[in-house]
Design goal:
This protein has 503 residues and is an alpha+beta fold. The protein has helices at 2-14, 45-59, 192-227, 299-311, 338-343, 432-455; strands at 39-44, 66-67, 72-78, 82-97, 100-106, 109-129, 138-162, 165-176, 179-184, 232-234, 239-242, 250-251, 255-260, 264-266, 293-298, 316-319, 348-355, 360-364, 367-382, 385-405, 408-425, 459-460, 467-477, 480-489. The strands form four sheets. Strands 2, 3, 4, 5, 6, 7, 8 and 9 form an eight-stranded antiparallel beta sheet that branches. Strands 16, 17, 18, 19, 20, 21 and 22 form a seven-stranded antiparallel beta sheet that branches. The chain has a six-stranded antiparallel beta sheet with strand order 12-13-1-15-24-23. Helix 1 (2-14) crosses helix 2 and helix 1 (2-14) runs parallel beside helix 3 (192-227).
Amino acid sequence: MGSLYFSFLFFLISTLFLSSQANLKLHLQPSTDHDESFTSVLISQQGLDFIKDLLINKAISSFIPLQLPATIEKSARIPFLGNVHMVVSNVTIYKIDVLSSYVKPGDTGIVIVASGTTCNLTMNWHYSYSSWLFPIEISDGGRASVQVEGMDVGLTLGLKIHEGTLNLSLLDSGCYVKEITIKLDGGASWLYQGMINAFEEQIGSAVESAITNKLKDGILKLDSFLQALPKEIPVDDNASLNVSFVENPLLSSSSIQFDINGLFTASNKAPVPKYYRQSRQPSVFCSDQPKMLGISLDEAVFNSASALYYDAEFMEWIVDKVPDQALLNTAGWRFIIPQLYKKYPNADMNLNISLSSPPIIRIAEHSMGATVYADVIIDVVQAGEVIPVACISLVIRGSGSVKIVGNNLGGSVKLEDLTMSLKWSQIGNLRMYLIQPVMWTLVQTVVIPSANSYLGKGFPLPIIHGFTLQDAEIVFSSSKVTVCSDVAYSEPDNLNRLQIRFA
């Protein structure tokens, strides 16, 4: 049972890696505060029960066979025979069946109980005696099968946060054996009742002690594992996710909620400007339909990614190919900007697009939107020389949608509105109302498809390999989006090799 609970808690805690929260102010200074929570994961009672049942059914095999360390000896005086010396050794648990079990979070910790458990054991037995009737020593031995019935196993765990890591402690544990049945496979059957009377209590105590020690060893190993968990998870060469735990877990009577920082951070450790809004910690919200897992992401998570990639200068593009390639020759603009064609007839062009600030993402009830501020420099390419001729400022407003793609959170954007103004020009005044349809077409046919190609793949939700989201729902609320989902496990033979990685 020790490795069973170790595996259960391993999944319970390590499955906690991406979601978030809100209630807001705007900041522009570098981010140095790491004790704010923008991410939360809630595991419901259904989720806890699923994990428990899965691991009880599939992970017990890693626990058995369990050999009890002690050799038990006892002497008893039997009428007509005198003193009989009895020994049992090599006591081994080879099968465990759990009739019922439950996991229950509460104010004092997480209680896990397996009740009505039966254990099947084998052991070697030996006895010897001599008496005044028989001056020589008489001995016999053989194998015996033992069945332990009505065993209850329980433990209470404490969870605390220390310097961004999760500490696990064993607050209480116990194993209680109610009944033992011993059946000899060899030897004298008349000694059967004597063996029961002699060893029942001691075998029960040995089983209780072995199970309890396994529980303690498992908790110590798990706590060491938790101390070694990384506080950052790489996303790509430029970004990582800050997965430091923030504040102690919130335990209710039917769920556990973990809060982590959850923001994107620069891999080179350079401070990222805080162009996102701070938040406090609202609970994960799912609909009335119960789901195993709730993962909530505040808009600050998306805006931290936006600020990071903007600061890393990843939001600049040179457009030299478009579906209508005539738009990248001054001849295609001769009726829109006549002076451009007159000064540079039949010259190739490109568009230098750069964002003037990070995109701003806002999440509201039932919707998600983004505002992008960009500058488009119109360049003429003549004799290998790039000549900037005008700069137009754009304000692009789009609506967004999100979806689950496997274990990724993907999405898409749709152009809703485009406004523009002339920032500067080397070729005189421009009639913006003529340029507007061209810019709309370029954004619609070049910028939006490019963005959707990337967004459609999504970014991974850190989930234990082998587990997949199932029947996921997405819920929008003020400043956050929540993924509510059941989970399924597809690799039952690999439970003992669980590892944290992007699925």
